[in-house]
Amino acid sequence: MFKGTFTALVTPFRSGEIDFEAFEHLVETQISSGVTGIVVVGTTGESPTLSHTEQERLIELTVGFVRGRCKVLAGTGSNSTRDTLVSTRRAERLRANGALVVAPYYNKPNQEGLFRHFRDVAQSTSLPLMLYNIPGRCGVDIQPETVVRLAEECSNIVSIKEASGSVARVSDLRARLPNAFTILSGDDALTLPFMSVGAVGVVSVASNLFPAEVCALVEAFNSGDMKLAGQLHRKLLPIFQDLFIEPNPVPVKTALSWRGAMSGECRLPLCEMSEANEKRLRESIVAFERAKA
User: Fold this and answer.
1) Looking at the predicted structure, is the pLDDT value of residue 290 above 90?
2) Which of 93, 166, 196, 253 is deepest in the core (most CB within 10 A)?
3) Distance in angstroms (rounded) separating the CA atoms of residues 133 and 279
4) How far apart (Å, rounded) are the C-alpha atoms in residues 63 and 41?
5) Cα–Cα distance between 128 and 202 in angstroms, integer?
6) Alpha carbon separation from 81 to 28, 50, 86, 134 (Å, rounded)
7) How close are the terminal C-alpha atoms of the chain, in Å?
8) Which pLDDT value is given to residue 293?
9) Going from the N-terminus, what domains does the chain have, and what CATH number goes with each?
10) Would the pTM of this model clear 0.90, i.e. be above it?
11) Which residues, including other chains, have CB under 8 Å from residue 18's CB and lie 6 or more apart?
């Protein structure tokens, strides 16, 4: 159901408000670069700082901008099952193609709590759902046993964005899940290693900045060109790493602002990069773009 390159799209702000003109331009750039799909109002889109009205408007606009040219996933997860149900139903009403549902953060449910949370979300909608496992940010890890149980009991839970950082975890999941259930990397730097053991794509932050290049990496692997995939991975790796030297999405928004695509503004509690890290990121991007020329 979900495979290829999905961009976890940033949300542009200007003077504290959403910059809808810049947002439409970002969407068009992604589509013209060949991405499989866009994730709107996900955590890279600073969803915790967006009002429900803003989230609804962004999903509605994205579906309208895209016009079926790629898939649209809406980030609907939160640490409240009730709120997640409401958000997921709203995404379905607004005609998103699916929902990305992050593990509940902060309250740290056990595995049974995680199972019931995702099961209840799945039962509330006909949308296909992609689980999002990112223990480093959520403080809770969706264990393989829970993923397998959800896949068996919920026909519309069809994919997982795996950001545990473990190649062994992806290998274990692939061995235990149905073939139709897809695994995508949640970490740009691990896209190629994860694909080597069974993942079929990435939900990417770096593709906000270099969508064609990330697509090329994924497509090279899927077409069997391991040499090209390895070359692209090595060229992109410094970018993948430096886009996370400060909390996401601050570095990628900063880099997009250098292109004039949008303001680099984030909403508090996120703030601008340090001068030292900004210098490091700029040097990595300049080196990469020179190497392309």
Assistant:
1) no
2) 253
3) 31
4) 12
5) 17
6) 33, 18, 9, 17
7) 36
8) 64
9) 4-223 (3.20.20.70)
10) yes
11) 11, 12, 54, 57, 58
